[in-house]
Amino acid sequence: MKRITMNNGIEIPILGFGTFQITDPIEAEEAVFQAIQAGYRHIDTAQSYLNEEAVGKGIKKANIAREELFVTTKIWVENVSYEGVYASLQCSLKRMQLDYVDLLLIHQPFNDVYGAWRAMEELQQQEIIRSIGVSNFSVDRVVDLSLFNKIAPQVNQIEINPFHQQPHTIQALKQEGILPEAWAPFAEGKNHIFTNEILASIAKKHHKSVAQIIIRWLVEQEIVVLTKTVNLERMRENLAVFDFQLTKEDKELIETLNCGESQFFSHTDPEKIRWMADRKLGI
């Protein structure tokens, strides 16, 4: 598995197994177990996914050395404060049956981000968190956080897919030494992505699936990729992307698919921000 070194010197596997929307506890536990068996060493969850306990059980069931795994979780909006990070992270660790996480992210750029970041810096120094970062932050918010705190974010996890490619954001993050990480690389199947003519033609040329073409496109940009599936064969397929390369023509064709906007929602929409503020997990 290819790994990328973050700005704190810690390596992160470039392919991660995402667990968003795998809410059934039995299914989530089995999916994580199978993902690790298939070869994943990077598992991504969040407080708001409501599956941390099942993810922890899947990790335990896999029975491999903890240091071989890279585990990420995220702090939900209601817990984005100094005290909230300390209290809710302990709950997350207890649910996952872990002593530490490899990466902790502020899930959304709302609430007391600065207070939360100070707590995360302290927890990183205590080695309860190995790496710290953010998710869904615009570049200006990430740079602001970086410049006015002791520790710069190691990661910004954002939506990146063929329909929302964000080249300028990716370039700016890399210039700041912050690693871009892609959620929803398949746009959750929107716009018939798996039967898209351009992607399908590239896939046919390389004797690969459309999913593998998208993952390879991101890997070649040195972007960490999170994919989700509960199907073991697709897990294996999504890992099999290191035996081919895209051509310049392939990449230029993929560039033509960029719509330049989120396939889901805007993080600047006041109604969406209110929805997040109102969503209470009680942890």
TrEMBL record:
Family, similarity comment: Belongs to the aldo/keto reductase family.
Keywords on record: NADP, Oxidoreductase
A Pfam family the protein falls into: Aldo_ket_red
Keyword Oxidoreductase: yes
Keyword Transcription: no
Domain (NADP-dependent oxidoreductase): residue spans on this chain: 15-257
Protein's name according to its UniProt entry: 2,5-diketo-D-gluconic acid reductase
Highest taxon of source: Bacteria
CDD domains attached to this UniProt entry: AKR_AKR5F1 (cd19133)
